[in-house]
Amino acid sequence: MGIEGIGARVARKEDRRFITGAGRYVDDMVVPGMKHAAFVRSPHAHAEIKKIDVKKAKAMPGVIDVLLGKELKTDGIGNLICGWMIHSKDGTPMKMGAWSPLAVDRVRYVGDAVAIVVAETKSQARDAAEAVEITYKELKSVTEAVDALKKGAPQIHPEADGNLIYDWEIGDAKATDAAIAKAAHVTKMHIVNNRLVPNAMEPRAALGHYDKAEDHYTCWTTSQNPHVARLVMSAFYNVAPENKLRVIAPDVGGGFGSKIYIYPEEIVCLWASKKTGVPVKWVADRTESFLTDAHGRDHVTEVQMAFDKDNKITALKVDTIANFGAYMSLFSSAVPTYLYATLLSGQYVIPAIHANVRAVYTNTAPVDAYRGAGRPEATYLLERTVETAARELGVSPADLRRKNFITTFPYQTPVIMCYDAGDYAASLDAAMKAADYAGFAKRKAAAAKKGKLRGIGMSNYIEACGIAPSAAVGSLGAGVGLWESAEVRVNGVGTIEVLTGSHSHGQGHETTFAQLVADRFGVPIDSVSIVHGDTDKVQMGMGTYGSRSGAVGMSAIVKALDKVEKKAKKIAAHLMEADEGDIVIENGVAKVAGTDKNVPWFQVALAAYTAHNLPAGMEPGLKEGAFYDPSNFTFPAGCYICEVEVDPETGVTEIVQFVAADDFGNIINPMIVEGQVHGGIAQGVGQALLEGASYDGASGQLVTASYMDYAMPRADDLPSFQVSTSNTPCPSNPLGIKGCGEAGAIGSPPAVMNAITDAIGNNDLTMPATPQKVWAAVRAAKKH
Amino acid sequence: MYSLNYHRASSVADAVKLQKKGEDAKFVSGGMTLIPAMKSRLAAPSDLVDLAHIAEMKGIKVSGKTVTIGGGTTHAEVATDAKLKAVCPALSYLASHIGDPHVRHKGTIGGSIANNDPAADYPAAMLALGATIITNKREIAADKFFTGLFETALKDGEIVTGVSFTAPAQAAYEKFRNPASRYAIVGVFVAKGKDGVRVAVTGAGDEGVFRAKGMEAALTKSFVPASLDGLAIPASGLMSDMHASAEYRSSLITVMAKRAVAKASA
Amino acid sequence: MAGLAVSTTINGDSVEYLCQPDETLLDVLRDRLGLTGAKEGCGTGDCGACSIILDGRLVCSCLVLGAEAEGRRVETIEGMADGDVLHPLQQKFIEHAALQCGICTPGFLIAAKDLLARNPDPTEEEIRFGLAGNLCRCTGYDKIVRAVQDAASVMRAA
After folding, report:
1. Which of A106, A357, B256, C35 lies 20 to 30 A from C151 at CA?
2. Cα of A44 to nearest chain B Cα, Å
3. Could you tell me if B64 and B156 lie in one domain?
4. By three-state DSSP, how is residue C9 classified?
5. Residue C22: its chain B contacts at CB < 8 A?
6. Binary contact (A506, C36; C-beta < 8 A)
7. Which residues on chain A are in Cβ contact (under 8 Å) with C96?
8. Mutation site, B252, B254, B258, interface A, largest A CB count within 10 A
9. Among the listed residues A329, A231, A225, A220, the one whose alpha carbon sits nearest the alpha carbon of residue A266
10. pLDDT at A1 over 60
């Protein structure tokens, strides 16, 4: 592998700028003449806009203009869209309500944008935003999806009768019901997956700049996928044609899904820049982030899992209601369908599965993919249910799982997915060994002596990454293809630029992608630069989400490297008068195998550009591009074990041990992979113990709209993590990579909840398991 | 933040003068509550009079068992002062668990007491220690000082310049923190002095910090955790919010009080 | 408005600036002085992304007024390295990959520097407690703790 090649723990190249404070994020950008924007937002969950008076606001000091939705419509700016078509089981297409970037006649959640104020300073823009006078007629609102489906619930969009966006199903209902009817045991659960706020530490921001002389727009934005942003803003929102719109996502401070989507603010800032003739910058404050970033999760599910007399799972029946919030965000429709129900087989052989999913509008922030997106919801219900079943059946949770593991591959599940490789028992064994599972009883007894309740829980997750192939997702309703592009440019002196459509916002692409090149040609990674995040530099790409940059993004780079290598070998062979087949490139040198003949890499590159001595007919230059469209999803899987101590007097849960054993396929940089797992676990533990977005049912106000009320995991809330990997290479991509970005957030919540419910002897507990809830559950358990 | 005028006071007298001049001038000590309120536009004073540079309001004096702490002393200074730690480690501990390091380096004891946030830590200590709150005009017993949610006996133009108390023989503070804000959901300060035991509870009362007289009587009889068995503050007078119901707070008060007694006795 | 004239010391250099009384020190650093290493993650003092050291004390610059810096010493991330020579904490953050997106990193480094100045040999628990005023959404803190431990031992040996 070499010290900088595939598999090496290479220090991250990008870190020097971050640790010196020299990172360049959107809020750090300054453009000459730049002015500042503030949005006027709805204080109501649901209301008609009767009148907007901007006179006072326009007269405020420093105000350049105040712009409204009506003007936006007049200028032909389009509504926001959801890009994945789902059909209900009756064949009708999903019912998408209109989402205007600035609300015109109705607001549908607290935070809905109504107007933009552009002023000389941030402070002046905010002062003027407060001075915009809007007369609202308040309407009844609803925040819970279950309530929104009830008769008499307020109608949120005229397009979606009864607030139902779609009523979708997958699997075989008849076979599932039949298996449940004749089961030896059925475990039934009511599962709530709590609503989360992604909370990337960098708030969203946009800087729109219309250059009149060039008739050209530039948008700096906090995006995980600038090319998709450009495509959507051009094709659907009519901001500008693609050739006149440059989207730049520079350093981006975390995304976790929330920065995939194209939000109203970047559209409006671009449009406002043209209207006002000045560059317009907007940066969300944290409250705006809480109110308007797409939230995650928020499912309510009834589940039944059937077993035969040998404790083999025979069927799984799932009925889910998914809260979509006030508008359908870009990927929202795919989350509780193809990213969720298709994973309901978990790691288990389940002959019959049926899932029904109803997607519902409510007067809350839009809900979309958040780290894991659908897969955490599937894993949570499965792993809570399997654990519960083990308790009901009186068998060990590990044995019950092992008995039902899929062991032969490829394995076709009843819900579309065909798993290509895995060894679930290996991960289970590794995790149990690392956790000293066998020694738990002793530790529990020792804890009891201190007055603590000790519990252990596990979770065996599977997920699907690198969503693809494009033709397949297209047939399932996706509006885009899910390939990736790459271009490898070797310069005349042998240094290399790799242009990628993936976008790094913490994943370390500048390092891992460079390791691929170092591995291939034996050049130092310092001579390799990764270029990304700018639509003027990289032609096209699909961005980074769904743990796809390794499996898809790097595979595209491999394809381009193959082409470069091939041409370089031809040149080297020509220079050394050798056979192309005898050339090997390693340690920065092209050699003729078995001889001492060689040319340094830079001379091969130079030869390509001087073109003085190339093989007959060869074009000058050494630059190749590739598009990679995967042939299948990848299927990372693993086993997480959590051990907790609960203080029965206060309900406080302390995680005393957390073990993760993952199968990510081949790994490029183990240090970076560990970090991804750590971060994912932290978010999963956050979901299980601390985090929950909460709306006041009566007013529709978000009551957890700051860090004073929304509990984020802090350094002293978390333990150290014991992580390891045992890998089965992925057969569908050239690197054998599966992806690791979301696993931690997918696998950890059920492990934590299984541990707590084990400790307290009460299974009736919802996330987040706050001290108050655990305390109440402990007391309830005592009463029984 | 709305526009305002900023003044740095050089002395207490200077501060009073500056505050009088402003239309709606406010004193700011560390600003850890006021500045966020101003940024979120919930407070809009015309003028800020900064007390952070008044030398006479700074520092900790310990003379025998008598402790005097200047109002402008930061939480971090209270937490780490060796002389204080020697006579009243409970207060050092309390200060070391306020908010986070950033808050502790800027927030001051005077500011916290004057603000009287119902979930702040210091008010519990002041009450349990039977402290005297010293202002530029008078001295006020802690029992008379904290009058309600964010309400104190302070009058316009009055500044908490310091506090003083006699270090108790035994004392401890136990806090059950809000997982998000790290303010107290329940904080119990127990102090055993020559006149008996005082127990003060913050974070829980629907009228702010209060003394648990029943617990005080029981602990004065016998200063052991078991004295509190079966003793609870009724939920009816306690706060209820999304983080903790009144019933939960009631239970936590007894648990925290017992732990404080155990810690004070250790 | 003319604004207030403030004389201060930033990373050892005398600096004078004009600011409005309602401007935070964070805004002054970022918008007036071009020192964008400190970030605004929340604006309410809860996330620590804007951490600076003021007169030797760790504070959130989003809760300090620009005017308050008069006559004081301000240290920011931009002054942490000695020219091209990284501070041991910076070096260890790189070696341990103790950062991902980087937005919270300057704040963590400043907070860790302050922590080690007060406690050169902290336990893991003390590190976690001491860094609890800084939020990181990427790393789960594990590698940050490791990096601080490692830097502490290097600094003690120096």
Report:
1. C35
2. 18
3. yes
4. strand
5. 1-4, 38
6. no
7. 671
8. B252
9. A220
10. no
Domain limits at B229?
A: 170-265
Nearest residue of C to residue A720 by CA position?
A: C142
**A605 secondary structure, DSSP code:** H
The CATH number that domain A417-462+635-784 falls under is: 3.30.365.10
Which positions in chain A touch B180 (Cβ < 8 Å)? 690, 704, 707-712
All partners of chain B with 3 or more CB pairs under 8 angstroms: A, C
Tell me if domain A417-462+635-784 and domain A483-628 are identical in fold. Answer: yes
- Per residue in B21-72, pLDDT (tens digit) is 999 999 999 999 999 999 988 899 999 999 999 999 999 999 999 999 999 9
| Residue A602 pLDDT > 60 | yes
Same domain? B41 vs B140: no
pLDDT bucket at A469, cuts 50 / 70 / 90: confident
The CATH number of the domain holding residue B236 is: 3.30.390.50
Name the residue among A741, A769, A743, A742 with its Cα closest to residue A754: A769
Strand segments, DSSP code E, in A12-60 are 35-41, 47-53
The single-letter code of the amino acid at A203 is P
Contacts of A703 in chain B (CB under 8 A): 242
Domain C4-79: which CATH class? alpha beta
Candidates B3, B179, B245; nearest CB to A711? B179
Q: How many residues does chain C have?
A: 158
How large is the ipTM?
Answer: 0.97
Six token digits for residue B228 = 């509190």
User: Reading across the β-sheet that carries A528-531, which strands appear in turn?
Assistant: A528-531, A496-500, A484-490, A623-628
For chain A, helix, strand, coil in percent to 5 are 30, 25, 40
Q: What is the pLDDT of residues C11-55, one digit of tens each?
A: 999 999 999 999 999 999 999 999 999 999 999 999 999 999 999
Q: Which CATH architecture has domain A483-628?
A: 2-Layer Sandwich (3.30)
Q: Taking CB atoms and an 8 Å cutoff, what residues of chain A touch B252? A: 650
CA separation for the pair C101, C78 (Å, rounded):
18
Same domain, B212 and B161: no
Q: Where are the domains of chain C?
A: 4-79, 88-157
pLDDT band at A218 (very low <50, low <70, confident <90, very high): very high
A694–B180 CB contact, under 8 Å: no
CB contact under 8 A, C44 and B31: no
Residue A709 to residue B180, Cβ atoms within 8 A? yes
Q: Is B150 found in the same domain as B76?
A: yes
B236 at interface of A, judged by CB pairs closer than 8 A? no
- CA gap A607, A597 in Å, rounded: 17
Residue ranges per domain, chain A? 417-462+635-784, 483-628
Same domain, B147 and B217: no
Contact A420, A409 (CB under 8 A): yes
For the stretch C67-85, pLDDT in tens is: 999 999 999 999 999 999 9
Output the CATH code of domain C88-157: 1.10.150.120
Among B117, B144, B166, the domain boundary falls at B166
CATH code of residue B21? 3.30.43.10
To probe the interface with A, which of C10, C138, C146 has the most A CB atoms within 10 Å?
Answer: C138
- For C58, the closest of B2, B102, B182 (CB atoms) is B102
Q: Which residues contact A61 (CB under 8 A, 6 or more apart)?
A: A124, A127
Tell me what pLDDT residue C2 has.
Answer: 66
